[in-house]
Amino acid sequence: MDFRQLRTFIEVAKLKSFSKAAQKLFLTQPTVSSQILNLEEELGCRLFDRVGKNISLTQAGQIFYNNAIEIINTYDNLKFEIDEYNKSIVGTLDITCSSVPRKHFLPKVISEFSLQNKDVKYRISELDSMKVIDNIIDGYYDFGIVGNKYDVANISFIPLMNDELVLISPVSYGICSPTLDLNEIINYNFIIREKGSGTREIIEKALSSTPYNFDSLNVIAYLEDNETIKKFVECGLGLGFISKYEIDNNLNQTYRMHKINNLPLERFFYLASHKIRTLSPLSNKFIDFLLEKSIFY
């Protein structure tokens, strides 16, 4: 057993595909299959269930996966310390986050981090907040940035940047007041983020403190991103809640922005990471940098 086999096994488990793992690792698929087979033979058990083109970890595979992550991260930490001693920090940083920090927080932070760490590359994926948490728990990512704080075992949440949700309405509706009462809008159609998003969770929680609840809204569409919500609103399909960071030059041209009296829609975006699992050294370095820079937001 060697580190190449462990890294191959981890990528197959993450991607649930031999061919995708081969592409990512710049190996042939037969090489990946051979490495996994050799591991299974050495361990004396199957690591993956294979049903047609679908693969999943066996119970033994899950145990091996959790420990393989620890071994690789411990090795990477050791190598990182030596590289840092030699002033050479390299590697690929995997970051998962929800849409607002991906667009409005990470670009500046990564730009500044890259000035000091020119050999680091980045893979950034956008998921809703609950999926980010699930992926951290499953070991697919060391950390992520989410739009809500959840009661989840072994996950820590550190505030990074503040935000506020605002209501937007199409100009064609003629709603001009910058502040509204909830009873003035409750009968309109709404376009809302999908279940699992931090935005959706904040709206549900805020409404629970009023005489209304989430089910009081006449939701005609559940969407996966703020940009599409804006497009739906601009076309006159209903009202929507989006982050204040998503307000753009179309304000007052195709849509208007409003605050709702007595509806608490302030929130933080949080750095989420595993409390127990050993993180990769590159992740630790970026997290330290991230926390330092978050004071500007």
Automatic annotation (TrEMBL):
Organism: Soehngenia longivitae
Source species taxonomy: Bacteria, Bacillati, Bacillota, Tissierellia, Tissierellales
Gene Ontology molecular function terms on file: DNA-binding transcription factor activity; transcription cis-regulatory region binding
Keyword Zinc listed: no
Gene3D superfamilies in the record: 3.40.190.290, Winged helix-like DNA-binding domain superfamily/Winged helix DNA-binding domain
Coiled-coil blocks: none
UniProt similarity note: Belongs to the LysR transcriptional regulatory family.
Segments traversing the membrane: none
Source domain of life: Bacteria
Name of this chain's protein: LysR family transcriptional regulator
